[in-house]
Amino acid sequence: PEVAPTSSSASGVWTLQEYSENQGADTWPNPVESAFEWLAGFTGNGSTDLYTFSNIPQTYGALKLVVSMATNSGNPVQPWMRVNGTSSANPGYYNMMYNYTPGGTSWGGGSGIDQNRVRSLNGGASNATVPNPYILEYDFQSYSKTNLCSPIQLIWGVTSGASSSTNSSQQQAVYRNGVPAYTSITLSTETGENYRVGTTMNLFGEAIS
């Protein structure tokens, strides 16, 4: 049977006896679960610059792609993200707006049209010059809609510990090729550099309650 607080207790306050009774009756509510469910993931192997999440389920309210870049020494690695198989041979266009902090000393920003990808823009100062690991988060709201433009947002930041080598950016983009649902997401790099060993790429779906 359900055990309720006694009338002498304040609202929401349980006595030790009530706590013991609930433990015995197993009537505590289940723990709250995360709204995001893991869908798929990859781990960089040092020999591949292209990873694609294909056949994305269309049953979630939103998607989140989290890319954890491993130590970025050697040739620079600057991620590109594309949806629905866009490439140089099959171009898609993205309206973009962005803010950034080059060198950690000031804010800049701009907007424009980018072909084929949403990239980790940072005002021209390559984030790849900073060797420390960093994380990029892409959010895809209403990604399964076919009657509206579904926005894409990217945030990331990287530092070497010195203000002169700190960059961060926030970007918003809209895919311009009509209003298709996003069924695939591809990660590539600026000039074909391979993703470092230990880099992880994980896609999550926000469950609709």
Description of the molecule:
This protein is mainly beta and 209 residues long. It has 1 helix and 12 strands, in the order αββββββββββββ. The chain has one helix spanning 16-25, and strands at 36-43, 51-53, 62-69, 79-83, 93-100, 108-115, 118-119, 134-141, 151-159, 166-175, 185-189, 200-206. The longest helix is centred in the first third of the chain and has 10 residues, at 16-25. Mean pLDDT is 75; it is low at 121-128.
Order of strands side by side in the largest beta sheet? 1-12-3-8-9-10-5-6
Helix percentage:
under 10%
Judged by helices, strands and strand pairing, the structural class is: mainly beta
**Percentage of β-strand residues:** 35-45%
**What Rg is obtained from the alpha carbons, in whole angstroms?**
22 Å
The number of strands is 12
Please state the average pLDDT score.
75
Number of helices: 1
Spatial shape: globular
Identify low-pLDDT runs. 121-128
The ordered H/E elements are HEEEEEEEEEEEE
How would a crystallographer describe the biggest sheet?
Answer: 8 strands, antiparallel
User: Distance N terminus to C terminus?
Assistant: 28 Å
List the defining traits of the structure above.
209 residues, mainly beta, eight-stranded antiparallel β-sheet, four-stranded antiparallel β-sheet, globular
Explain the layout of strands and helices.
Elements: H1 16-25, E1 36-43, E2 51-53, E3 62-69, E4 79-83, E5 93-100, E6 108-115, E7 118-119, E8 134-141, E9 151-159, E10 166-175, E11 185-189, E12 200-206
